[in-house]
Fold this sequence. Notes:
The strands form 2 sheets. This protein has a two-stranded antiparallel ribbon. The longest helix is centred in the N-terminal third of the chain and has 23 residues, at 114-136. By secondary structure, the protein is mainly alpha-helical. The termini are far apart. It has helices spanning 16-27, 31-38, 42-50, 58-68, 114-136, 152-164, 176-191, 195-215, 219-238, 242-259, 262-278, 282-293, 296-299, 302-322, 326-343, 358-371, 375-383, 393-409, 413-426, 428-433, 435-447, 452-460, and strands at residues 85-87, 90-92, 347-349, 352-356. A hairpin with a 2-residue loop joins β1 (85-87) and β2. The protein folds into 4 domains: 3-78, 434 Repressor (Amino-terminal Domain) (Orthogonal Bundle), CATH 1.10.260; 149-260, no CATH class; 295-385, no CATH class; 387-465. The relative contact order is 0.07. It is globular. Helices cover 66% and strands 3% of the residues.
Amino acid sequence: MTSTSDPASTACSPSPGELVRRTRKEKGWTLAHLGRLTGYSTAQVSRYERGISPMTDVAVLRCFAHTLGIPLKSFGLAAPAPVAEVRHGQVVAPISAYPRLPAHTVGSPRQEDGEAAVRRRQLLANLAVTAAAAAGAPLLSGDTAPTDEAALGDILVSRLRDAMLGLGQRLPDVRPETLDRDLSRALADFHTCQYASLAIRLPRLIQAGHALTTSSENPEHHLLLAHSYTLATRMLIKLDEQQLGWMAADRARQLATTANDPLAVAEAARNLAVLARKAHWHDQALSLALAAADDPALRAAGRRGAAQRGLLIQSAAYTAARNGDRDGMRDLTAEAASIADDLGGPTLLRDHGGGFSPVTVQLHLISAENSAGDPAAALAAARALSPRALPSDERRSRYHTDVATALAQRGRRDECVRALLAAEQQAPEETHARPAVKSLISGLLVSGRTTPELRGLAARAGVLA
């Protein structure tokens, strides 16, 4: 090692990525060569060197130190610990505590006033009637009872919580093929933002899936339940229910691993990365997403594996934006766009409506630019995309709410309200149930003049002035 590779010998210690880059160049190695030696892709090694993907994982640091011959102390690591003690055939090693889960973000429980309590009981009654009808036959588009859409998010969360905890009446035995059809319908409910229907179908799927996996070791049954939990995770993330989301995402990951399905494992990792980002664990979120994107099993999964890699890199780009790294966000977005261009068109994925394509990358860029604090760039990204080109009602509604967010940041209130009304027209249950939209409406109500259109939207979303 030369002195330039040892941070102890310099006045200003380089970052781990800079140290790796310096040492690699001193050895005359290319990024691709170092990637082959360490087992990482060329792109991932480049991300480590540039600091886009933080080198905080001890196993990653030890791998690069060993490969490049960098002393462990240069990375701030101690020498390898002695061989762990073995007791009764079990390796005993020190453990660290799990990180604390993020705090609940929707709000603390409170006493409801009489009118709200009556609405809630009526909605529960309506859903119970619909559930009884659904128990004997699949739900059809016109079967849902009238509901208070502003409370749908609460109902969805409570029913998912009960299903995940094994509460409620035991369902009659069902055939796997029936559950598979119901999963397809639940996914359709999500993509069309039919949350009243989803509040019935998805909890039943989880309950029935657990009964099936308890009585069978068939990997396909575990995979079906993994898909159900992945859908539950996406819904819980949308509703800002992080703690329950962690539980659902971890179950999805375990079930997908048991089923040995790399696509399902990768999607569970993507959702875990989203949850880590929402908890402000940005380094961990980046590591989760980028490590999953670099999994050899995913790389061997063909076109769909490439599309799932693109989704993971998109997620990492959004995390970089939330962490204030605008350049990293744009680099990662460009990498995702390159994958989409190489695929040459949309690639459908069961766990992600509309799959992955240049259009979905552009939609993601709008959110990322908003999070990076550049609403002008977000609006420019939105102008380059027609919402009609997006693959589902859920994605089109997300487009309009992202545009509304950017307009609100620019102080363009009237245009912001029009964008929210467009989102409502596209997907009313999504607009009325989602906490992020309610928060935006609430901010408009208290920050300036109101209009009949804004007050009407607030009333429909259950937002009080």
